[in-house]
């Protein structure tokens, strides 16, 4: 029969075992366990995990795009009033009165002269009224067809005729100058000349040249404006 001292030791050990078991049970309930196989030794190890609330984030503003639709970034709006390498005809008209001066005008006249001198109409196209502008300004059934089949076709033919006028020594012809009667320019309003837009227009411009010691000239019958710049619309007879 155990004495009192041994009985107290046994009761203390039993109480300690029960306390440890109770504490382990509490940990299992409040925290939780998961057994994850160890990839290194193939032995289960005890991993403790605690559920944590996800971090709070602010969603960025976005646009919903249908599946299969490419996402693009819209280009910034253009506010340039000169060509700057862009198509001036794609920009809206202004009522700025044009001047027969400046780098853009000089380059246009030079291109027109080279078109005639070399018999290459395409060299003069940058100085010809832009197609996009014509589509904006003309109130007719087929402005695109009229532009290509009448205006450009006539310009091409006029360039060929004027080149022939220079004669056999056209390659030696020299540009002398151009006279634009700007004081006679008028502002054409919407509703006039089959237009839904407006522009400045001047008749009677002449381009002077020299060839074989002789001075000659040819008409640039009609110039009209787009965004403050003059452009050819009729080189020879208006037709």
General description of the model:
With 239 residues, the chain is an alpha+beta fold. The chain folds into 2 domains: 4-48, no CATH class; 91-234, no CATH class. The protein contains 4 helices and 7 strands. Helix 2 (103-118) crosses helix 4. The longest helix is centred in the first third of the chain and has 27 residues, at 4-30.
| Average pLDDT taken over every residue | 77
Shape: globular
Main sheet overview: 5 strands, antiparallel
Q: How many alpha or pi helices?
A: 4
Write out key terms for the chains shown.
five-stranded antiparallel beta sheet, 239 residues, two-stranded antiparallel sheet, alpha+beta, 2 domains
List the helices and strands and how they pair.
Elements: H1 4-30, E1 33-37, E2 44-48, H2 103-118, H3 131-137, H4 143-166, E3 174-179, E4 186-188, E5 199-211, E6 214-226, E7 229-234
Helix pairs in contact: 2-4
Task: Please provide a brief summary of the model.
The chain has 4 helices and 7 strands, in the order H-E-E-H-H-H-E-E-E-E-E.
């Amino acid at each position: 029969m155990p004495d009192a001292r041994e009985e107290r030791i046994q009761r203390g050990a039993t109480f300690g075992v029960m306390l440890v078991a109770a504490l382990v049970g509490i940990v299992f309930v409040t925290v939780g366990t998961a057994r994850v196989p160890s990839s290194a030794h193939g032995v289960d190890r005890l991993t403790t995990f605690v559920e944590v609330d996800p971090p709070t984030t602010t969603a960025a503003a976005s646009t919903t795009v249908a599946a299969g639709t490419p996402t693009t970034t819209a280009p910034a709006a253009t506010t340039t009033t000169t060509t700057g390498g862009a198509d001036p005809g794609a920009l809206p008209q202004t009522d700025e009165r044009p001047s027969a001066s400046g780098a853009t005008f000089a380059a246009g006249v030079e291109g027109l002269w080279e078109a005639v001198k070399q018999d290459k109409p395409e060299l003069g196209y940058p100085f010809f009224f832009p197609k996009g502008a014509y589509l904006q300004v003309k109130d007719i059934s087929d402005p695109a067809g009229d532009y290509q089949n009448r205006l450009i076709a006539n310009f091409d033919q006029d360039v060929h005729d004027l080149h022939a006028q220079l004669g056999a020594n056209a390659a030696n012809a020299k540009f002398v100058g151009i006279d634009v009667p700007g004081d006679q320019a008028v502002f054409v309003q919407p509703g006039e000349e089959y237009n839904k837009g407006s522009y400045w227009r001047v008749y009677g411009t002449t381009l002077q040249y020299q060839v074989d010691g002789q001075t000659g000239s040819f008409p640039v019958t009609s110039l009209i404006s787009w965004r403050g710049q003059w452009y050819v619309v009729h080189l020879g007879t208006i037709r």
